[in-house]
C-alpha cells in the first residue's frame, strides 16, 4: 500500500465513492502513476472505430468457425481405419490432419482477434508502479474491483454487444472443441452386446472375447501359432508391396492331448466362424485379422492348465463351478484380479499361479483363489469341455467379470 496515503477509509466512505473515484484512489494506493493515457477513439460514431470493430469481429468469427469445424470433423468425418488400397483411405488419412488444422486455426484466429482488440480498443497508457510488500487490506480490495470495472468500461467492450457476442461464441466454440474429444473416452458399460443373449455390457468391463453373442455358436480354445502374414511384392501402388493374409491361420484349435501334464498354455477365444485348421483348412479363407483381434483383446487371454493327475485329485471346486473343468484341465482368466496384469507364471510343483506385478499368488488347485499378495478375488474360471471332434471349447461365459474391481462388480 502507498506510503503517501495514510487515511483509513471506512466502509461507508468507500460505498459513497463513485467508480471513477475508487479507480483513481486505487491507482494512488498502489503507487501507480498514470503518466500517459489516451482513448483510441475519443469521438463518438467514428467510422474508423466501426471498421476496427468489424475487423476484430471477423477474426473471432473465423475462430468460432474453425472450432465448430473441429467438432464437425470429430462427429462426422470417416474415422474407421482403412488399409492401403481400401476405398476411403484418402478421406480417412485426412482425419488427424484436419483435427490439427481446425484446432490450430481456431486458436490462431482467436489469438489474432484478442491482440487486435487490445491494439484497437484498449486505451494507450503508460503507468508506473512501485513494488510493495504485505497483504492487501479492504481498501485495496475495493479499489482493485473498481479498477477492473474501469478497465472493462474503458475497453469499450461493455457497449459492443455484437463484438461481445462474437467473442463469446468463439470462446465457447473453442472450449467445446477442447472438451469434445473427451466424449470418445466415455462408453456405456451397460449397452447390450447382443440381443436376446442376456449379455451385459458392450465389451467394456463386463464382457470378453469369450462372451457368446450368437446362440449355438462355439468358441474354441485357440492356440497361438505365432504365424504372421507374409509380405509380397507387386501389391498396392503406394508401396509396391502387400501382406498376404489368405490361408494364414494364427489360432488353431487345441486337443487335450496337445498339452503335457503339469503344463500351462495361454489360449485365446477362437470363434467357430473363423476356424481354419485341421480338416476345416481352406487356403483361400481370410481369418488372420479376426485371429489377431482375438489375441489383442485386453481381457481375452486365458491360462489353460493341465494339472498333474495326482494333483488334480486334490483339487477343490468352487461352489456352483464344479463342472467348469474338463478332467485335469482348468482354464483361468490370465488377467490379475488386483489391477489387471497378466498372471503369466505357473509353478508346476506348487500349482501356484504368480502375478509378476505385485507378487499375488493364486492356487490352481483351489479354484484360482488368492493365497498371497494384494489380489483379493479368485481368477475367474472359464467353463470348458471337449466337442465331438475332440477339440477344447468354452461351454459358457465367465460367470463373473474378468480383471480388477470396479464400482458395480458383484464378486
Ligand atoms: S496386478 Fe497382479 S498383483 Fe498387482
From TrEMBL:
Classification of source organism: Bacteria, Bacillati, Actinomycetota, Actinomycetes, Mycobacteriales
Pfam families in UniProt: QcrA_N (PF19297), Rieske (PF00355)
Compartments it resides in: Cell membrane
Record keywords: 2Fe-2S, Cell membrane, Disulfide bond, Electron transport, Iron, Iron-sulfur, Membrane, Metal-binding, Oxidoreductase, Respiratory chain, Transmembrane, Transmembrane helix, Transport
Protein name stated in the entry: Cytochrome bc1 complex Rieske iron-sulfur subunit
Molecular function (Gene Ontology), one example: 2 iron, 2 sulfur cluster binding
UniProt main location, coarse: membrane
The Rieske domain, residue ranges: 304-393
Amino acid at each position: 500500500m502507498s506510503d503517501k496515503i495514510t487515511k483509513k477509509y471506512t466502509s461507508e466512505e468507500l460505498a459513497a465513492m463513485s467508480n471513477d473515484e475508487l479507480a483513481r484512489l486505487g491507482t494512488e494506493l498502489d503507487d501507480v502513476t498514470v503518466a500517459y493515457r489516451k482513448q483510441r477513439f475519443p469521438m463518438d460514431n467514428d467510422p474508423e472505430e466501426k471498421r476496427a470493430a468489424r475487423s476484430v469481429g471477423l477474426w473471432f468469427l473465423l475462430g468460432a468457425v474453425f472450432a465448430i469445424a473441429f467438432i464437425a470433423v470429430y462427429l462426422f468425418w470417416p474415422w474407421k481405419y482403412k488399409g492401403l488400397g481400401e476405398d476411403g483411405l484418402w478421406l480417412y488419412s485426412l482425419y488427424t490432419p484436419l483435427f490439427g488444422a481446425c484446432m490450430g486455426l481456431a486458436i490462431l484466429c482467436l489469438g489474432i482477434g484478442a491482440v487486435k482488440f487490445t491494439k484497437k480498443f484498449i486505451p494507450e497508457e503508460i503507468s508506473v508502479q512501485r513494488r510493495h510488500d504485505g497483504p492487501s487490506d479492504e481498501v485495496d480490495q475495493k479499489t482493485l474491483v473498481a479498477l477492473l470495472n474501469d478497465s472493462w468500461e474503458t475497453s469499450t467492450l461493455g457497449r459492443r454487444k455484437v463484438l461481445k457476442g462474437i467473442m463469446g461464441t468463439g470462446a465457447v466454440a473453442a472450449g467445446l472443441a477442447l472438451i469434445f474429444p473427451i466424449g470418445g473416452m466415455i462408453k456405456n458399460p451397460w449397452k447390450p452386446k447382443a440381443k436376446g443373449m442376456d449379455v451385459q455390457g458392450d465389451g467394456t468391463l463386463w464382457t470378453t472375447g469369450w462372451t457368446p453373442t450368437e446362440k449355438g455358436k462355439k468358441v474354441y480354445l485357440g492356440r497361438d501359432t505365432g504365424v504372421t502374414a507374409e509380405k509380397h511384392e507387386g501389391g498396392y501402388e503406394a508401396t509396391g508391396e502387400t501382406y498376404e493374409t489368405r490361408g494364414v491361420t494364427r489360432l488353431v484349435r487345441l486337443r487335450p492331448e496337445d498339452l503335457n501334464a503339469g503344463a500351462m498354455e495361454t489360449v485365446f477365444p477362437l470363434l467357430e466362424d473363423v476356424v481354419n485348421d485341421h480338416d476345416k483348412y481352406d487356403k483361400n479363407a481370410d481369418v488372420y485379422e479376426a485371429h489377431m483381434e482375438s489375441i489383442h483383446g485386453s481381457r481375452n487371454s486365458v491360462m489353460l492348465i493341465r494339472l498333474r493327475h495326482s494333483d488334480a485329485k486334490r483339487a477343490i471346486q468352487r461352489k456352483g463351478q464344479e463342472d467348469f473343468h474338463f478332467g485335469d484341465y482348468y482354464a483361468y482368466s490370465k488377467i490379475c484380479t488386483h489391477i489387471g496384469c497378466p498372471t503369466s507364471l505357473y509353478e508346476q510343483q506348487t500349482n501356484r499361479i504368480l502375478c509378476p506385478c505385485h507378487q499375488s499368488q493364486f492356487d490352481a488347485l483351489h479354484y484360482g483363489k488368492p493365497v498371497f499378495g494384494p489380489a483379493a478375488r479368485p481368477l475367474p474360471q472359464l467353463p470348458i469341455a471337449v466337442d465331438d471332434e475332440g477339440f477344447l471349447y468354452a461351454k459358457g461365459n465367465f460367470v463373473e467379470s474378468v480383471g480388477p474391481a470396479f464400482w458395480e462388480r458383484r464378486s
